[in-house]
């Protein structure tokens, strides 16, 4: 099993403590640190993903559960109205975030904030977050990575000017979080509330317009 390098600072100390408590025969303590190490290895797992082909597809930016699909009427980085899809990531989900489309990164904006539970409405506007604006040949897509009560860190792998492909890893959120995906009105949604999705695999929507290039 491939594991994210960011997990080293979590599972190596717990593995070391497992060995240190095992040597003198402190069985309960060693069992605890062994289970903790396995939990960290599981959380930071990095499965291989082969995104489905198709320039017209919009892929899920994360693993998790679709907790909300709503209309939005205005957004500073998106012209007109459209749909926003909220995906909640539990501690059991893979926590890499992936680009939903092949595009150029136009803007990356980190915002410090609070730590409300990621499934609550307040999380979208008040929690610590990192926003990424993507411009594809078919139109803009805006995604917002948010941390919750347990999650306290967002790592972003891209910066303005980078080119990304659909399904490419672009970030990592630690220990339970949420992603909001803002789509323009010419994307036909293919998912529903309470549906489980896989980052880089599940088709969130499909562009109805022709390529602009």
Gist of the model:
The chain has 213 residues and is of the alpha+beta class. It contains three helices and 14 strands.
Molecular structure report:
- With 213 residues, the chain is an alpha+beta fold.
- The chain has 2 domains: 39 residues; 149 residues, Distorted Sandwich (Glucose Permease (Domain IIA)), CATH 2.70.70.
- 17% of the residues lie in helices and 36% in strands.
- The protein contains 3 helices and 14 strands.
- α1 runs antiparallel to α2.
- The longest helix is centred in the first third of the chain and has 17 residues.
- It is elongated, with a radius of gyration of 19 Å.
Strand order of the largest sheet: 9-5-6-7-11-3-2-13
- Residues in β-strands, percent: 35-45%
Number of domains: 2
> Could you spell the SSE succession in H and E letters?
HHEEEEEHEEEEEEEEE
CATH fold group of the largest domain: Glucose Permease (Domain IIA)
Low-confidence stretches: none
The CATH C-level name of the largest domain is Mainly Beta
Report the mean per-residue pLDDT as an integer. 87
Specify the biggest β-sheet. Answer: 8 strands, antiparallel
Indicate the CATH architecture of the largest domain: Distorted Sandwich
Summarize the helices and strands and which ones pair or pack:
Elements: H1 8-22, H2 27-43, E1 57-59, E2 64-72, E3 82-89, E4 96-98, E5 103-111, H3 122-126, E6 129-136, E7 139-147, E8 154-156, E9 163-164, E10 169-173, E11 177-183, E12 187-189, E13 196-197, E14 203-207
Antiparallel strand pairs: 1-14, 2-3, 2-13, 3-11, 4-10, 5-6, 5-9, 6-7, 7-11, 8-10, 12-14
Helix pairs in contact: 1-2
